[in-house]
Amino acid sequence: MVLKIFFPRCCNMADSGLLIGHWLPGQDSAVVLAVVHYPFIPGQVKRYLSQLQNESRVELAVLGSWSMPKEGQEGMESFLRDLSTIFPRGRWLQLSREMGKRGFTCQVVHRDGELPRGEGENCKGDNGDGGGVIFIHYDQRKSQPLFLTDKYDDGPLKLTHWQSEGREASIIVELAKQASVPLCLLLTWLLSLWTWLCSSRLLNLPPVRLVSSKLSTCVQLSYRTEHLQTVSSPKRALGHAEFMRKANIFVSFFVDVALGLLLISWLYRENRISRLANTLVPVADRVAKELQELLQWLMGAPAGFKMNRALDEVLGRFFLYHIHLWISYIHLMSPFIESLLWYMGLCACLGLTFALSVLSDIVALLTFHIYCFYVYGARLYCLKIYGLSSLWRLFRGKKWNVLRQRVDSCSYDLDQLFIGTLLFTILLFLLPTTALYYLVFTLLRLVVVLFQGLIHLSVDFINSFPLFAMGLRLCRPYRLAEGVKFRVLCEEPGKPLHLLMEINPLQYGSVLQWYRTPTYNCYPKDSWAALCKKLFVGELVYPWRQKGTKTD
Amino acid sequence: MFRRDWTGRNPVSKCIIGSLVMGADSDPGAPSAVPWRKVLYERQPFPDNYVDRRFLEELRRNVGVRRYRYWPVVREAGLVTQQLSCVAAFLTLWWYMYQGQLYPFTLLLAGLLCALLGYGLYEALGGPRTEGRTRLADLQSAAIFLAFTFGFSPVLKTLTESVSTDTVYAMSALMLLAHLVTFPYAQPSPPGSLSLNAALFGSVCLASRLPGALHTFAMVTCALLVFALWPCLLHRLRDRAPRGFPWAAALVSLGGIGGLASQSPGGAVLLALAQLALTLLCPLLLLWLQEHKDNIHGPWDEAEIHEDLSRFLQ
Amino acid sequence: MADDEKFTDINGKVIFLACQNHSSFCREFTVSAPKVSLRHIMMYTCSVWLVAYIVFFLTENTAVLSGAIFVTLVGMLLHIHFVKIDHETLLIIGSLGVQVSSSYASGRESTTFIEMSKIKDIVINEAIYMQRVIYYLCILLKDPSDPDTLSSVVPLFQSSKPRLNCLVKVYQSCQEILAQC
């Protein structure tokens, strides 16, 4: 086996002394944690070690000696060897540096054999037991429980180990910690009040629930409640994942609110709300006008299609009447729109996501006529497609066997055949008209859905983006480690191998993947093929996810 | 001698026999001490594909072939001829309506008369009634036909307005041809679904070009009579009065030719020629070809290739 | 210590294998692919610019030209940062583990370290690649719950895909070190 010695980089240039650390049982490796400098009293060192051991529950021991040659300090060899008798262990390491060389040399003294096992010069594997030594240099980080003393503290012993560059803003952190507990309690109480309000009988009536599950503002509200419940729970985060989740939610919530306040400060200045309201009504009017023109065009001979005149006229008039209703509704609403917008804009102080959700809902409400047209068209088209497909089977003298899930042949009566064929002919010749109406309204609907989908996507992005983890990855890459990586430091012939162990930080992609806050959009969606099939058959397409499909 | 007869008959079975015979031929020096037996449960000193010379003794040819005679075949061919004539007669009627030379009311009256006469004849001929079909049910069916056709005729009228005439003609011709091709000549009593549906589709297409809703109604009713009810009556006639059947078929054929002649003599001549060829020449051709029939049967299974191609699609 | 030898990859292109002996139980193998050829860059750039110029000729919109320049630059950056792998390194340290790293032409490096206790063996395997059979070197990983079974396979030199003679050389050195511990 090869002996592995993990050596902290901060002790590279330390003065001579004793190596403190611990052996990893069964792995043939030693971890050096600190160096105790001369002069010291062995009894003091032992007491200090046992004290540290009690505090930190890490098994500490004196591993060996460390000698850093300096002018006027020659002839320490025998002294160092004698030290091993004072601190009795199974193995005693003698590390030393030489003047002007980068590598260390290492001698291992066995307590039982009393003989140096591998000397630095020939520990290259060619001595009998094939052993060797690898120095692995590592960066010490955050060994607070072990060595709480700062650089300038004066203790009974002089030590070299990793020291933080001071604890900046620690008072603020402490204060925040103290303050966070009552704040969390208050927040929890408020949230429980809110959830109680939400779970009251009145809000759980089926129509209210249906509407609230379709309005993206309500969905966003429930998200935020859930998030705040997670954050404000007074229990400590148990694992890393839970801590990161809390921190991510916390940071993204703050960013969200900050963006929302920014939006408010922009929106409520210079009378922008009323200007917006003044443009909104004409825009809705304009859309209705455009739709009217589109319908007029469809009622003629659009793009040279051969439409059934009678059906065309019926459908066109029906839709025109609908638009007429819509326009009068808008005009009825127009005096209230400005104040409505003003109050809705206040939502943004809950966060940008709320503002976006409200926008999405407004768009949904203002394009309700398009949705209606789409539903009528799709239902009609769907009916026709289903009718045609079953009548086509009748036309061929077949029928669908429900029990066996296949098409069987069947002998029909004369009157069934006659009526079926009559209906088939009629449906077939009316299909292009319906299909054209369906196509046009589906395209319109898709535009609206696309817009809403974009808004939902951005809301979801803000909700689920792991801002804290990203920041941590950017500023403290070693905190999010994927593993370690090694680099060969120096190879001088005759010296043990020196490796540098570094933290291999997580890739940004995996940070995003691991620390993402789960939302509906994380779950698999319909594929494009399924969407196209739905569109072809005439099933309704919605921008929102059905709540029942949320698993996990 | 046999090998020459197999040429080009059935490539798959020929292949199999070829390989089997080759197995027999290629092993002339096989140990003949143990006679070969056609069993699988014994281990025999022969290769798997071995057969001996008795193999072809079990070859049989033209099993269960009925020899046709000329006049019965002509009689049966009359069915095809009269169906062709039916289509011609229907087209003639439509043409008269289209030209305005025939009033829908007249057609309806004639249709009613024909239907009553036919129904009377159908009942008079007797024969097994379909289960559950009472007179009331027949009346109900007739009422449904009439009501639906009458109700839908305004819709049907506007159906093909925007479609160009050529398309409608092409579609109707295609559908009537499909009717003729898929008509179940062997068992015409419940008219086959596809043939009847094709005929009705074609006639609805044609009827929708007529000038008025009543015209459409009359035409669709007429189509129902010609394509749905007449085959039933004819089948009953063939079953119960085999003597009367050829006369009825000949009458209808002549009626079709005569009707067409009143509108386009050229077409009538063509139709007559076609009918003559169908009735007289085609049976001759059949008899002549039957002499060349050579079907082999034997103690082998024909190779069938069941290739599951669906895995290539994935 | 280091010896350079000419090898070819599965497509017949020249690659270089550098084998560095840090100590008796630590070796480093570097397979470097040839640099991005200027001819290819020229070809792609020219084709993009030609298309852009044709579009510019038709539409007379100068935004197309600046767009083309932008596209070429961004494409080249993305290519050297995410696609083009300059060299792949296998560092095997006896009793410690194996480190696989690949560095991109831009200098970006992605590294994975596999502990020795997880490694079952290093073998040369065959695979069907497009229409031919190729050899590749791979690390077999143990299943932590059941050390006798394989949990997964980590292929090495995935982008350079050296031929068998090169793989055998690496394989023999690796086996020497694995046998020591």
Automatic annotation (TrEMBL), chain A:
Swiss-Prot/TrEMBL keywords: Membrane, Transmembrane, Transmembrane helix
Q: Which GO terms describe its biological process?
A: GPI anchor biosynthetic process
| Transmembrane is among the record's keywords | yes
Task: Write down the InterPro entries for this protein, in alphabetical order.
Answer: PigQ/GPI1
**Per the record, GO CC terms?**
endoplasmic reticulum; membrane
According to the record, the segments passing through the membrane are 249-268, 340-367, 373-395, 416-440, 446-469
UniProt-recorded name of the protein? Phosphatidylinositol N-acetylglucosaminyltransferase subunit Q
Instruction: Please give the organism.
Output: Anguilla anguilla
UniProtKB/TrEMBL annotation, chain B:
Show the GO cellular component annotation of the record: glycosylphosphatidylinositol-N-acetylglucosaminyltransferase (GPI-GnT) complex
Please name the pathway: Glycolipid biosynthesis; glycosylphosphatidylinositol-anchor biosynthesis
**One Pfam family cited in the UniProt record for this chain:** GPI2
Spell out the InterPro entries in the cross-references.
Plno_GlcNAc_GPI2
> Sorted alphabetically, which keywords does the UniProt record give?
GPI-anchor biosynthesis, Membrane, Transmembrane, Transmembrane helix
Membrane-spanning residues where?
A: 102-124, 136-156, 168-186, 216-233, 245-262, 268-289
Q: Membrane topology for this entry?
A: Multi-pass membrane protein
Transmembrane helix listed as a keyword: yes
- Tell me which Gene Ontology terms the entry assigns under biological process: GPI anchor biosynthetic process
- Keyword Signal assigned: no
Q: Where in the cell is it found?
A: Membrane
Assigned protein family = Belongs to the PIGC family.
State the protein's name: Phosphatidylinositol N-acetylglucosaminyltransferase subunit C
Q: Which organism is it from?
A: Anguilla anguilla
Give the classification, highest ranks.
Eukaryota, Metazoa, Chordata, Craniata, Vertebrata
Automatic annotation (TrEMBL), chain C:
What range(s) does the Phosphatidylinositol N-acetylglucosaminyltransferase subunit H conserved domain occupy?
89-158
Q: In which pathway does it act?
A: Glycolipid biosynthesis; glycosylphosphatidylinositol-anchor biosynthesis
Q: Cellular component GO terms, alphabetically?
A: glycosylphosphatidylinositol-N-acetylglucosaminyltransferase (GPI-GnT) complex
Give a GO biological-process term.
Answer: GPI anchor biosynthetic process
InterPro entries annotated for this entry? Answer: PIG-H, PIGH-H_dom
Q: Keywords in alphabetical order, please.
A: Membrane, Transmembrane, Transmembrane helix
Residue spans crossing the bilayer: 41-58, 64-83
Name any one Pfam family assigned in the record: PIG-H
**Family the UniProt entry places it in:** Belongs to the PIGH family.
**Name the record gives this protein:** Phosphatidylinositol N-acetylglucosaminyltransferase subunit H conserved domain-containing protein
Organism the protein comes from: Anguilla anguilla
